[in-house]
Amino acid sequence: MSERREAVNRGSETSPIRKTKCLRSPRRFAQSLAVLFLVAALGAAQASLAQKQTGQEDFYLEWAAQARYLQPLWVVDTDSALGRLNLHPKSITLKDMARVHGHLCDGLVTSWVQLSAALRELFPDGVVDRTDVRAVSRNCPCCADAGAWMTGARINQGTLMLDNSVGVGFIVQRISTGEAVQVSLRPGVYPAQLAALEQSIRARRARGETVEPAEIDRFERGANEYSRKLLNTPQDQFVIVERLRDYHFPDHSQDPIAPRSDTINRDAPRTMPQPAVNQQR
Prior knowledge:
With 281 residues, the protein is an alpha+beta fold. 46% of the residues lie in helices and 14% in strands.
């Protein structure tokens, strides 16, 4: 009988501890649950931010990101404002250039393909020294931007000259050797109907006339199809690279001033949704 009472007493003595453990367990569970909810909330916030950032990159379309013959260009420049040559090359891409230029278009794609071919001809080891290049471009938004950005040439430094006589192409020269090439599209590469539509739209806008949004849509679709074809075909099938003998780089631009031509339909309404963007970045 006494043994049973002692057991009961021992049980009563330990019961507060057991009760405390029982009380702590739900508290710990609640704390763990709160941590899980916090982690989940942070993850959702990061996913939402990533989605917003992806949505802001609709300037670069999926077909460009997956283009078969689109390769980065490897370049060297200088370090710091005092300018010692880089020890290691870096890559630049069409996407980088589209971000700087403001959009991806047929003119930018054409310039990328042409200048890539010209620079690889002048730098056969595959690394372009952008401190050793000068170029001549026609005066258009796409060509001038590409000419400066890809080659490192600059108008204010006298290494990028604007001359509309070069047409849809470039002259690129390696300063240290004097080697020069002229690069252009093969005849018939750019669709004649697309060129006629573009000229018609530009002519009417220059006269102050309105243009139907459907016409702009039709041109953009055609330009995208042309660009897609260009980036999925070997360059030598579309581009001509010619060596120039005893080339003398011009000392001034023939056509230094021109109105900006890629904003003429800035406020025109849209009739179709934005195309799908590449989600794998």
